[in-house]
Automatic annotation (TrEMBL):
Full protein name: Phospholipid-transporting ATPase
Domain spans labelled P-type ATPase A: 100-162
EC number: 7.6.2.1
Keyword Ribonucleoprotein: no
Gene3D superfamilies to which the protein is assigned, alphabetical: Calcium-transporting ATPase, cytoplasmic domain N (3.40.1110.10), Calcium-transporting ATPase, cytoplasmic transduction domain A (2.70.150.10), HAD superfamily/HAD-like (3.40.50.1000)
Pfam family, any one: Cation_ATPase
Length: 1167
C-alpha cells in the first residue's frame, strides 16, 4: 500500500500550511527583511535529522500455519530485520551528530548536524561533506567558483564546478554575512538531483531588492564533497528528509519474478485443497455421528455445555480444528528457504572470477537477490550503445572544415599514442579565406565546451601530469567526447589553457594567448542535442558558437558549405563514427542585449523555467554559418559481438536503444553482429514517413515480414534460424512517438501499437535510434505489456538508461565512464557487457533450474506428508486425532527435510557450465517458465498423493491383524504413525538424491547426514523419559518398531514401491523422448565430465539446416590486425565438427573450441 499521499498530507499539516504552495521563502541567517520590503511570514521547516530506520518489523509469512514452525519463521525474520534496522538507526545517529560550523552574529559556532535549520549560513572547509542542500554564497576563490565531487550521489568522480551568487561572492568573512539581508524564493523539495529553480532577493539601501536567478549550478547537494577549494559559505535551503538525497531514499517499485508468481498461484491451489480437506472431514464427521451408536465416546471428556451448543458453532469449531490439523500442507518454510537460497546464491555471482575486471578492479554486484531466477527467463534484451556495446573511450579521428579533412595521428582521450609525431591533412590547402574559416572552427571547439583544466597537484593531493620534471595540465569533463575534441584541437595547434576571471584563454599556432570573455553558456540537453556559448573577443566582437548533432544544426544553418560537410558526416556515420557539427553566428551589440534579456527573463521565472529557457534557446540558436564537423570513434567493447550472437542463439531478441544517429548506430549493429549481411533491413524512420503516410509504411512492413511465414511470429524460432528470413528493424524517436500516440482524427487508423508489435515480433533484431531516455522506458513498457508478457532485461551504463533499467523486469547496470547512476539503480551491476553472457547463460540457467526443483519439491513433500493424515481421519472417526507425533509435525520442514533441498538449490549443476557457455541454445529449454508449468506441477502433486497412499495403505494392509513383537504385542496408533513417517522421510530424501546430478562431498554429508539425524533424534526422543513433557506416548515406540523384522522389510518395500514409478517414467522418457539437456547429460557421463572438450555439441541436437552467412562484419578503424588474423585462421582451419569424437579424443586436439565455434557463439567462446 502506498502511504505517500497520507505522509505528504501529514507533513504539510505539521508544517502549519493550510494552503500548500509550490514555492518556499528562505530568509538567510533567519533575519527579518527590512521594514516595508515585504510581509514577514515565519515558516516552519523540518530539522536536519535523517531517519532511515523503519521502526516497524514486517514478516513475509502467512498466519495460516501454526505452532513452532510459524514461531520460528517469525522470530528469525524479526531478528534479521530488527538487527538491520538497528544498524540503520546507529548509522543515522552517526550522521545526525556530525559537527558543522554555522555563522551566527559574525562568529562561527560549532553545532550538531541535526540542529541545522533552513536559512542558517554554514562554513564548509575543503574535503568536508555538505550536511544538507545548500545555496552557494561565496568561496575562497576569486572567481566565486568551487569544485565538488558527487561520487556518493551518482558515482561520478570528476570535479564539477559550481558558482556563487554574483552579488554575494564578495562576502568573504563572518562579519560580512552578519550585514547580509536577503531572501530566497525557490521550488518545494523534489527528488530530481539535477533540477533547481529559484531566485535570491538581496536588500540594500534602495527600496527595490536586487533579484538574481538561482539554478542547479548554485545548488550544493547533501552528501557531495568540497574539493580543491579552501572554504565556502552557503545557506541551508533543504534540510533533513527534504534534501534531494533523502527524497531519493524511496525504494524502487517491487519487481516480482515469474517463479514467485507461480509459487503464489500454486499456494492458492493448495489453500483450496486445505479448505476442501477440512470441509470434507467436517461434513463426514457429522454424517458419521448421525448414527447414535457412533457418537463421540465418553472418554473424549466433552462437557454437557459443549454437547448442547448449536450445531453450526460446533461445526465451525471442528472446521477450524481440521484446518489447524491439515495446515502443514501449506509450505510456509518454503518461502524462508527460497529467501535463503536467493540470498546465499547471489554470492556466486559476486565470487565469480570470470566476471572480475582487472582494468576497473570491479566485480559483479548484486543489488537485489529477488530476481536471480529471472536471469534464466529473459526473452528480450534492451541495450544501450555508447558505453555498453562500446567502450565510451573516445578517439578523435578527423575534422572537416568547409569540405577539407584533417586527420591528427591517434589522439585517444587526451593521450597522444606512441609513435604519433605528425599531423596529416587530406586534400589540398584550403586557401586564404579557408584559412580564416579553419582557425575560426578550431577556436569554436576550444571555446564551446565545459572542460576543466587541472594542474598536476590539484587532484586530491596526487600529483598527476608531471612530464620531464615540468608541471603540465590535463582536461577533465563529464563528457569523454569533449575531452577528445579539445585534445584533438591541441594536436592541430590550438590549445585551450584555462578559464580565469570569466575569460577563456587559448594558445594559437603562433604561441599567442587569445582571451575571450565568456558571457553565457547555453547548456546541452537531450532534447535540443546541442550546446552553445556566447563570447566576446578582445576586439569587442560578439560570437555565438554552437556544436551539436547534425539533425539539430543543419536546419538552423543559413550559409556555409552544407552539402560538402553533410556528405562527410554521412560517410563517417556509415563507418560507425560519432559526428558533431560546428556552427557560429556573429552578434551585434543590440542582438546580444536582446539575447541577455531573453535569458534573464527565463532564468528568473519560478514557474515553467525549463520551458521558457527552451523557448529562449530556440530563439537565440538560429541563422548559423556552418563551419564544419568532427568525427570521434567509440571502440566496440571486447567480445561484444560474441555476446550478442550467443544471446540470439539462446532465443533472445536483442534491441539496441541509443540516442545516436541512424547511420552510426547501424554501423555499430553490423560490427557487433546484431545485423548480418543477409539481414533484410526494414526502416521506420522520419525520412520514410515524409514520403509515405505512417499508416501505409506500417502496413507495407507488416506485409513484408508476414509474407515469409504467414501470421507465425519469430518467437518460436532462434534469432539465427535458417527456416525463415532474418529481418532487422530500424526506427527513430520521432516515428516512435507517432506510433505510440493515438490519432484524434481517425481512431481506426490512429492506434498503430498492435501493428508495430507484430512487425517487431517477426524481426530478429531492432535498432531504435535518436531515442530520448523516456522513450527507452516506453519501448520496454510496450513490450512488457504485449499479449505474450515476455520477460525483459535492460542494460546500460549512463543516467539516461536508468528509466529503462527500472522499467524492465531485470535491470543491469554497467560500471562505465558515465558515472554509477545506472549501476546504483539496477538490480545487478557488471563491469563489462561481455559478462552478460555468463550471467544469463550460466548463472541464470542454474538459478532457474535450482529454484524450480526447490518449489516443486516442497509442494511434493508436503502433500506426501499431510495426505496420510487426511486418510487417517477415515479410521479414527474424524476426531482430529493426529497421525504423527507433535515433534515430527514440528521438525519435518524445519530439520528433517529442509537442509538437503537448500543445498541442492545452491550447488546443483545439471550440465557443466562450459557446455552452457558453448551451447547457448540450451537456454531455450527453460524458456517461458517451462519447468513450473501446470502439467509439471500437477505431476509432482499426484506423485506426492501416490506416495502418501503407498505410505498409509501399504503400512495398513501389511500390518493388518498381524503381530510384530516377540511377546505377541501389536503395534499401536503411534507406532503406525511413526512407521509411516519413517518411510516418508526416507522416500522424499532419496527422491532428491535421485534428482541430483552434481555430487560432491557436501551433498553426501547433508543427504545421508539428515537421514542419520532423523534416526538419532527418534532414538533419543523415544528412548528417554523427558520430564518437561506432560505425556510419554512416544516412549520406546521407535526402538520397539526397529526391533521388528517385518517393520524393516516393510520400510524397504514401501520406499522402493514409492520411488519406482518416478524412476521408470524417467528411464522411459530418456530412452524414447530425450531432451537436448538429457542427451548432453548422457554424453557427459560417457566422457566422464569432459564433454565440453572432446565432443561437438551440435551433434547432440536435432539435425537442422546449417546457415551459411558467416560473412565478415563491417570493418572498423579500431579493429586490431591480430583479431583479423585469428578470424582468418578460424575460417581456414579444418572443420572439426566433421570428425568423430573418438578421432578428436585420440588426436588430443587443442582446437576443439574452434571446431565448436562454427556452431556456437563465435571464435571467442573456446575454453
Amino acid at each position: 500500500m502506498d502511504f505517500s499521499s497520507i505522509r505528504k498530507f501529514i507533513t504539510r499539516w505539521c508544517a502549519g500550511e493550510e494552503n500548500w504552495v509550490d514555492t518556499r521563502t528562505v530568509y538567510i541567517g533567519n533575519k527579518e527583511p527590512p521594514p516595508g520590503a515585504e510581509a514577514y511570514i515565519p515558516q516552519r521547516y523540518p530539522d536536519n535529522r535523517i531517519i532511515s530506520s523503519k521502526l516497524i518489523i514486517d514478516t513475509p509469512t502467512s498466519p495460516i500455519t501454526s505452532g513452532l514452525p510459524l514461531f520460528f519463521v517469525i522470530t528469525v525474520t524479526a531478528i534479521k530485520q530488527g538487527y538491520e534496522d538497528w544498524l540503520r538507526h546507529k548509522a543515522d545517529n552517526a550522521i545526525n551528530q556530525c559537527p558543522v560550523h554555522e555563522v551566527q552574529h559574525g562568529k562561527v559556532i560549532r553545532k550538531q548536524s541535526r540542529k541545522l535549520r533552513v536559512g542558517d549560513v554554514v562554513l564548509i572547509k575543503e574535503d568536508e561533506t555538505f550536511p544538507c542542500d545548500l545555496i552557494l554564497l561565496s568561496t575562497s576563490r576569486e572567481d566565486g567558483t568551487c569544485f565538488v565531487t558527487t561520487a556518493s550521489l551518482d558515482g561520478e568522480s570528476s570535479h564539477k564546478t559550481y558558482y556563487a551568487v554574483q552579488d554575494t561572492k564578495a562576502f568573504i568573512t563572518e562579519e560580512d554575512f552578519d550585514t547580509l539581508q536577503a531572501s530566497i524564493e525557490c521550488e518545494q523539495p523534489q527528488p530530481d538531483l539535477y533540477k533547481f529553480v529559484g531566485r535570491i532577493n538581496i536588500y540594500s539601501d534602495r527600496n527595490e531588492p536586487i533579484a538574481r536567478p538561482l539554478g542547479s549550478e548554485n545548488l550544493l547537494l547533501r552528501g557531495a564533497t568540497l574539493k580543491n577549494t579552501q572554504h565556502i559559505y552557503a545557506v541551508a535551503i533543504y534540510t533533513g528528509m527534504e534534501t534531494k538525497m533523502a527524497l531519493n531514499y524511496q525504494s524502487k517499485s517491487q519487481k516480482r519474478s515469474a517463479v514467485e508468481k507461480s509459487m503464489n498461484a500454486y499456494l492458492i491451489v493448495y489453500l483450496c485443497i486445505l479448505i476442501s480437506k477440512a470441509l470434507i472431514n467436517t461434513v463426514l464427521k457429522y454424517v458419521w455421528q448421525a448414527d447414535p451408536d457412533k457418537d463421540e465416546p465418553f472418554y473424549n471428556q466433552k462437557t454437557d455445555t459443549e454437547r448442547q451448543r448449536h450445531i453450526l458453532i460446533r461445526a465451525f469449531t471442528d472446521f477450524l480444528a481440521f484446518m489447524v490439523l491439515f495446515n502443514y500442507i501449506i509450505p510456509v518454510s518454503m518461502y524462508v528457504t527460497v529467501e535463503m537460497q536467493k540470498f546465499l546464491g547471489s554470492y556466486f555471482i559476486m565470487w565469480d572470477d570470470e566476471m572480475f575486471d582487472e582494468e576497473l578492479g570491479e566485480r559483479a554486484q548484486v543489488n537485489t537477490s529477488d530476481l536471480n531466477e529471472e536471469l534464466g527467463q529473459v526473452e528480450y534484451v534492451f541495450t544501450d550503445k555508447t558505453g555498453t556495446l562500446t567502450e565510451n573511450n573516445m578517439e578523435f579521428i578527423e575534422c572537416c572544415v568547409d569540405g577539407y579533412v584533417y586527420v591528427p595521428d591517434a589522439i585517444c582521450n587526451g593521450q597522444v599514442m606512441p609513435g604519433s609525431t605528425s599531423m596529416d591533412m587530406i586534400d589540398s590547402s584550403p586557401g586564404p579565406w579557408g584559412k580564416e574559416s579553419e582557425e575560426l572552427f578550431f577556436r569554436a571547439l576550444c571555446l564551446c565546451h565545459t572542460v576543466q583544466v587541472k594542474e598536476e597537484e590539484t587532484v586530491d593531493g596526487i600529483k598527476i601530469g608531471i612530464h620531464q620534471n615540468k608541471a603540465t595540465s590535463f582536461y577533465i569533463s563529464s563528457s569523454p567526447d569533449e575531452v577528445a575534441l579539445v585534445e584533438g584541437m591541441k594536436r592541430l595547434g590550438f590549445t585551450y589553457l584555462r578559464l580565469k576571471d570569466s575569460h577563456m584563454e587559448i594558445l594559437n599556432r603562433e604561441d599567442e594567448v587569445e582571451r575571450f570573455e565568456l558571457l553565457e553558456v547555453l547548456t546541452f540537453d537531450s532534447v535540443r542535442r546541442r550546446m552553445s556559448v556566447i563570447v566576446r573577443s578582445t576586439t569587442g566582437e560578439y560570437y555565438l558558437f554552437c556544436k551539436g548533432a547534425d539533425s539539430s544544426i543543419f536546419p538552423r544553418v543559413i550559409s556555409g558549405k552544407v552539402e560538402q560537410v553533410k556528405a562527410r558526416v554521412e560517410h563517417n556515420a556509415v563507418e560507425g563514427l560519432r559526428t558533431l557539427c560546428v556552427a557560429y553566428r556573429k552578434l551585434s551589440v543590440a542582438q546580444y542585449e536582446e539575447t541577455c534579456h531573453l535569458l534573464n527573463s527565463a532564468k528568473l521565472a519560478l514557474q515553467d523555467r525549463d520551458r521558457k529557457l527552451a523557448e529562449a534557446y530556440d530563439l537565440i540558436e538560429k541563422d548559423f554559418v556552418l563551419l564544419g564537423a568532427t568525427a570521434v570513434e567509440d571502440r566496440l567493447q571486447d567480445k561484444a559481438a560474441d555476446t550478442i550472437e550467443s544471446l540470439q542463439k539462446a532465443g533472445m531478441k536483442v534491441w539496441v536503444l541509443t540516442g545516436d544517429k541512424m547511420e552510426t548506430a547501424a554501423a555499430t549493429c553490423y560490427a557487433s553482429k546484431l545485423f548480418r549481411r543477409s539481414t533484410q533491413i526494414l526502416e521506420l524512420t522520419t525520412k520514410r514517413t515524409e514520403e509515405q503516410s505512417l499508416h501505409d509504411v506500417l502496413f507495407d512492413l507488416s506485409k513484408t515480414v508476414l509474407r515469409q511465414h504467414g501470421s507465425m511470429t519469430r518467437d518460436t524460432f532462434s534469432g539465427l534460424s535458417a527456416d525463415c528470413v532474418d529481418y532487422g528493424l530500424i526506427i527513430d524517436g520521432a516515428t516512435l512517438s507517432a506510433v505510440l500516440k493515438p490519432s484524434q482524427e481517425d481512431s481506426s487508423q490512429g492506434n498503430y501499437k498492435e501493428i508495430f508489435l507484430e512487425i517487431c515480433r517477426n524481426c530478429s533484431a531492432v535498432l531504435c535510434c535518436r531515442m530520448a531516455p523516456l522513450q527507452k522506458a516506453q519501448i520496454v513498457k510496450l513490450i512488457k505489456s504485449s499479449p505474450e508478457h515476455p520477460i525483459t532485461l535492460a542494460i546500460g551504463d549512463g543516467a539516461n538508461d536508468v528509466s529503462m533499467i527500472l522499467e524492465a523486469h531485470v535491470g543491469i547496470g554497467i560500471m562505465g565512464k558515465e558515472g554509477r547512476q545506472a549501476a546504483r539503480n539496477s538490480d545487478y551491476a557488471i563491469p563489462k557487457f561481455k559478462h552478460l553472457k555468463k550471467m544469463l547463460l550460466v548463472h541464470g540457467h542454474y538459478y532457474y533450474i535450482r529454484i524450480s526443483e526447490l518449489v516443486q519439491y516442497f509442494f511434493y513433500k508436503n502433500v506426501a506428508f499431510i495426505f496420510p493424515q487426511f486418510l487417517y481421519q477415515f479410521f479414527c472417526g474424524f476426531s482430529q486425532q493426529p497421525l504423527y507425533d507433535t515433534a515430527y509435525l514440528t521438525l519435518y520442514n524445519i530439520s528433517f527435510t529442509s537442509l538437503p533441498i537448500l543445498l541442492f538449490s545452491l550447488i546443483e549443476q545439471h550440465i557443466n557450465m562450459d557446455i552452457l557457455k558453448k551451447d547457448p541454445s540450451l537456454y531455450r529449454d527453460i524458456a517461458k517458465n517451462s519447468l513450473l508449468r501446470w502439467p509439471i506441477f500437477i505431476y509432482w502433486t499426484f506423485l506426492g498423493v501416490f506416495d502418501a497412499i503407498v505410505f498409509f495403505f501399504g503400512s495398513y494392509f501389511l500390518f493388518n491383524n498381524s503381530t510384530f513383537t516377540s511377546n505377541g504385542q501389536m503395534f499401536g496408533n503411534w507406532t503406525f504413525g511413526t512407521l509411516v513417517f519413517t518411510v516418508l522421510v526416507f522416500t522424499v530424501t532419496l527422491k532428491l538424491a535421485l534428482d541430483t546430478h552434481y555430487w560432491t562431498w557436501i551433498n553426501h554429508f547433508v543427504i545421508w547426514g539428515s537421514l542419520l539425524f532423523f534416526v538419532i533424534f527418534s532414538l533419543l526422543w523415544g528412548g528417554i523419559i523427558w520430564p518437561f513433557l506432560n505425556y510419554q506416548r512416544m516412549y520406546y515406540v521407535f526402538i520397539q518398531m526397529l526391533s521388528s523384522g517385518p517393520a524393516w522389510l516393510s520400510i524397504i518395500l514401501l520406499i522402493v514401491t514409492s520411488l519406482l514409478p518416478d524412476v521408470v517414467k524417467k528411464v522411459v522418457c530418456r530412452a524414447l523422448w530425450p531432451t537436448t539437456t538429457e542427451r548432453i547429460q548422457n554424453a557427459d557421463k560417457l566422457y566422464n565430465g569432459q564433454l565440453s572438450e572432446f565432443t561437438p555439441l551440435a551433434s547432440l541436437h536435432a539435425p537442422t539446416r546449417r546457415r551459411a552467412d558467416h560473412q565478415n562484419p563491417i570493418p572498423r578503424r579500431s579493429e586490431h590486425f591480430t583479431k583479423k588474423l585469428m578470424f582468418t585462421h578460424w575460417r581456414s582451419g579444418p572443420d572439426y565438427c566433421t570428425f568423430t569424437p573418438l578421432l578428436r579424443f585420440a588426436g588430443n586436439s587443442r582446437h576443439s573450441g574452434a571446431g565448436y565455434a562454427q556452431n556456437g557463439a563465435g571464435p571467442e567462446t573456446s575454453v
